[in-house]
Amino acid sequence: MKVLVTGAAGFIGLHVTRLLLERGDEVVGIDNLNDYYDPKLKLARLECLKPYANFRFVRMDVADSAALGGLFVGEQFNRVIHLAAQAGVRYSLANPQAYIQSNLVGFANVLEGCRHNSVEHLVYASSSSVYGANTRMPFSAHDEVNHPVSLYAATKKSNELMAHSYSHLFGLPTTGLRYFTVYGPWGRPDMSPWLFTSAILEGRTINVFNHGKMQRDFTYVDDIAAGTVRAMDRTAAPNPDFDSDHPDPASSHVPYRIYNIGNHQPVELMTFIETIEQSLGQQARKVFLPAQAGDMPATYADVEDLKRDVGFEPKTSLTEGIARWTTWFREYAGGNSWS
To answer: I need a surface site. Which of 8, 26, 171, 321 has the fewest CB within 10 A?
Structure first.
């Protein structure tokens, strides 16, 4: 197949693209290489993809409707994996327009490209953050998610609603994947594994928000990539049992699906830090702080639907995943000044 991967120079984008290439798909990757964090890291990820003859990179912003529309017309993709987005909950507090342009305008442009060019299936990144003020655990895609606690979360929920409208109006099969805290090699410098690991190795203090009591469903990036590709291979279809009197938020009478993709094993933040300490053989200097605005106290994914429908099964334990992460960080990232 010919697949478009947006955000191909991103953390998850690299791993998804490489998995597609290794199985023989043709991939066109796009990314705007913005400076939310040092673009040198994004360029280094792209270097990992250069050996593949069936990969081509185009620098492009999904918010540029003319450029993206032209790409769709010229390439005629079979399927699209849309991972490009302005990431980060805390950044959205000070930079809301970045989220409007990338996550809303950009997503609308992707939907239009798929609609007008007979794309067989659109898979897009949603987020566990859409659960917002929900407290019932584990989070289920069948629960309503109408109380986001950050603008980032609100844009991701909006993506799901926009996708449903295109599935309904134009028959475009769409699958939204709610990613739960992803970690692993080539991760982002603004995410906790990088912040903690770099500080521990350099002897700096680390900020531990909510006094370390937050829980996250930490999921290794290779498991995430495998689940994403499996979801792409299974084109979304209408739910034959859909009841409009009691509508299921995770499916529809049209080709529309929503899945959680996570590890189904929530880990307390302090346990996560201790696992990094053990892998590095060094102790962290901790500063305990209250929770920050927009932070969710816990995330925990019910992944039974994805397991049933596409065979998703996370395989990487936290100890194994952190060992791979710290090895990569020591060998590659530790010698750079990315921030």
So the answer is: 171
314, two tokens: 């996370």
Catalytic residue (one of 152, 183, 220, 300): 152
Supply the pLDDT for residue 336.
Answer: 58
Q: Which two tokens stand for residue 275?
A: 């696992």
* Burial annotation 64-86 (CB, 10 A radius, 16+ → b, else e): beeebeebbeebebbbbbbbbbb
Give the residue among 113, 117, 28, 27 at the shortest CA–CA distance from 62: 113
Please identify every stretch of the chain with a pLDDT value under 70, giving residue numbers as ranges. Answer: 294, 334-339
Q: What is the DSSP string of 45-86?
A: HHHHHTT-TTEEEEE--TT-HHHHHHHHHHH--SEEEE----
Give me 210's structure tokens.
């909510």
pLDDT at 237 (0 to 100): 98
List the one residue out of 99, 71, 65 whose CA is nearest residue 84: 99
The pLDDT of residue 300: 87
Give the residues across from 298 on adjacent strands: 215
Residues forming a β-bridge with 127: 179
Residue 31 — φ and ψ, nearest 5°?
Answer: -165, 145
The b/e string for 278-315 (b: 16+ C-beta within 10 A; e otherwise) is ebbeeebebeeeeeeebebebbbbbbebbeebbebebe
Cis peptide before 138 (omega within 30 of 0): yes
pLDDT tens-place string over residues 14-43: 999 999 999 999 999 999 999 999 999 999
* Tens digit of each residue's pLDDT (9 = 90 or more) over 113-161: 999 999 999 999 999 999 998 988 899 999 999 999 899 999 999 999 9
Angle, nearest 10°, between helix axes 65-75 and 106-116? 30
Cβ neighbours for 144, distance < 8 A, ≥ 6 positions apart: 249
Nearest CA to 249 among 154, 164, 124? 164
Q: What is the pTM of this model?
A: 0.94
The amino acid that residue 69 corresponds to is G
Task: Tell me, yes or no, if 152 is annotated catalytic.
Answer: yes
